[in-house]
User: Which sequence fits this backbone?
């Protein structure tokens, strides 16, 4: 058996101003640079993070080690005192590049000059989404449906803050002055700002109420999972290790989204069943969200999130893959040559008013492929949601609209496609699209249900309680303390 070179693994050092497992105290220049960025981060948190929350004590999970089992530690924390830090998954000294042109070579511990610019771009794009989502959710705390949900929102917010730290560490450590400037930019752009918006469109949409929050956590955080998983394959080992650790936190965010929507469906079905209602306006009059409105929100969040995968056919994606900067989902488990030369992949597009399937070089279709992998998981989640009306004996089922529906990026941008996949003229689409997408009235109705419920164990009328509490605690536990 070949000798395995020893790589000393660092435990997370919480005695430092910036908790870390990257031996920051032995790199004084980097430590000083990050300590200068830290107050700017805290200013950003105070200005754009969850509103009026500095004094609250929140029952949060904090990573204490990056091992598979021992990374979560629960306790009350005031959020500005959350120990944001830099945690990378353990290094594997034998790790080799396993796809693209450099396959078989050792992974890189530094950034090769030729890949500096695309790697920086990927890291900045990823990093930009993290503070953006916190900004989008800033005001939600004021209308929480329960203490349990409030705590979950804050857990997501602090972890997105830490994911920003993860990308900022890479920028500071590996990209010199450019990286430091990009790290400042990450605190300067603002979600929805007309002059200095966040980079990707979905992160400039409002998350004005809790239905939008759960939909976002189900659809958009799962894009996060797939993008992070593709980056966890990277030949740039520090990026692979940091995204691997981020993925452990992402799972909980998706759970919050999936279970949040499921609890709304449950409550609506209970009311419909009890009162024998089917008419949306009568259902709304009971203070719960009708299933047709839920479907319109699914249509919106799904289509906006599909745009996050980039163009279906993309030379950027091909270059990222041949350069081994970004792999496919589950790259190591795919049984092919991991170079894709000569392979083809099917993509859909509009030709002469019809949707057609075209074979394109697989290397150029990697965004489409990652998106298709994502859609499979999303469909499985929707199938789980649909068990709820099924249990009540109701015929209603949530469906995913066609890939071409309501798209701004990729082959279907500038096309007018119905949820069923029919190509329309712009005029026809505009006439009918109010049936498919949430209207201002839908937002106003959902908004009207939102009021703050903070008595332990109580839940707003429009959402069912969860099956169990956080960390095996009872549902009526005081997850957030206001004194
Ligand atoms: N909006 O070849 P193309 C998460 C631009 S979510 C606006 O199609 P590429 C999270 C693109 O910049 C995961 N512009 O794109 C979830 C380019 O512009 P230029 C985030 C867009 O590069 C919840 C042009 O269109 N992570 O973590 O192959 C809460 C053509 O580019 C968009 C990542 O995204 C858009 N949606 O792919 C918190 C991973 N899409 O240069 C967090 C890192 C494309 O021609 N990013 N454009 O001016 C990437 O891997 C790639 O940048 C993308 C785009 C997949 C996003």
Assistant:
């Amino acid at each position: 058996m070949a000798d395995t070179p020893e790589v000393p693994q660092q435990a997370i050092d919480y005695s430092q101003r910036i908790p870390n497992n990257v031996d920051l105290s032995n790199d004084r220049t980097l430590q000083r640079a990050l300590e200068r960025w830290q107050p700017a981060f805290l200013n950003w948190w105070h200005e754009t993070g969850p509103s009026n929350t500095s004094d609250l004590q929140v029952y949060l999970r904090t990573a204490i080690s990056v091992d598979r089992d021992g990374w979560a530690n629960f306790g009350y924390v005031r959020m500005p005192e959350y120990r944001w830090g830099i945690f990378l998954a353990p290094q594997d000294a034998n790790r080799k590049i396993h796809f693209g042109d450099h396959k078989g070579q050792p992974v890189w511990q530094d950034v090769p000059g030729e890949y500096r610019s695309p790697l920086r771009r990927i890291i900045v794009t990823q990093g930009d989404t993290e503070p953006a989502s916190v900004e989008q959710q800033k005001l939600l705390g004021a209308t929480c449906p329960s203490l349990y949900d409030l705590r979950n929102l804050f857990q997501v917010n602090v972890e997105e803050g830490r994911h920003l730290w993860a990308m900022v560490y890479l920028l500071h450590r590996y990209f010199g002055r450019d990286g430091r400037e990009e790290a400042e930019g990450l605190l300067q752009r603002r979600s929805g700002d007309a002059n200095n918006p966040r980079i990707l469109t979905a992160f400039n949409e409002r998350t004005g109420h809790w239905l939008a929050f759960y939909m976002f956590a189900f659809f958009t955080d799962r894009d996060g999972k797939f993008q992070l998983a593709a980056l966890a394959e990277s030949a740039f080992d520090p990026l692979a290790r940091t995204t691997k650790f981020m993925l452990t936190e992402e799972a909980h965010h998706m759970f919050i989204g999936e279970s949040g929507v499921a609890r709304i469906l449950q409550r609506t079905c209970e009311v419909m069943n009890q009162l024998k209602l089917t008419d949306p306006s009568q259902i709304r009059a009971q203070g719960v969200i009708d299933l047709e409105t839920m479907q319109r929100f699914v249509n919106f969040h799904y289509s906006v999130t599909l745009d996050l995968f980039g163009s279906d056919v993309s030379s950027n994606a091909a270059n990222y893959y041949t350069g081994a900067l970004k792999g496919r989902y589950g790259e190591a488990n795919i049984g092919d040559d991991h170079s894709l030369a000569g392979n083809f992949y099917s993509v859909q597009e509009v030709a002469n008013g019809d949707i057609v399937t075209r074979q394109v070089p697989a290397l150029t279709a990697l965004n489409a492929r990652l998106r298709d992998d994502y859609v499979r998981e999303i469909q499985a989640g929707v199938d789980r949601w649909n068990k709820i009306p099924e249990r009540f004996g109701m015929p209603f089922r949530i469906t995913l609209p066609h890939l071409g529906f309501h798209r701004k990026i990729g082959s279907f941008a500038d096309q007018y496609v119905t949820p069923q996949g029919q190509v329309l003229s712009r005029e026809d689409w505009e006439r009918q699209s109010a049936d498919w997408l949430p209207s201002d009235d839908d937002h106003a109705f959902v908004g009207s249900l939102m009021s703050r419920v903070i008595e332990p164990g109580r839940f707003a009328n429009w959402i069912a309680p969860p099956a169990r509490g956080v960390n095996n605690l009872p549902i009526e536990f005081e997850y957030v303390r206001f004194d």
Summary: Residues 237-275 form the longest helix (39 residues). The CA atoms of residues 192 and 204 lie 4 Å apart. The pocket of benzoyl coenzyme A is lined by residues 122, 125-126, 129-130, 133, 160, 200-201, 220-221, 223-224, 227, 307-311, 314, 316-317, 326, 367, 409 (CB under 6 Å). The chain has a mean pLDDT of 95.
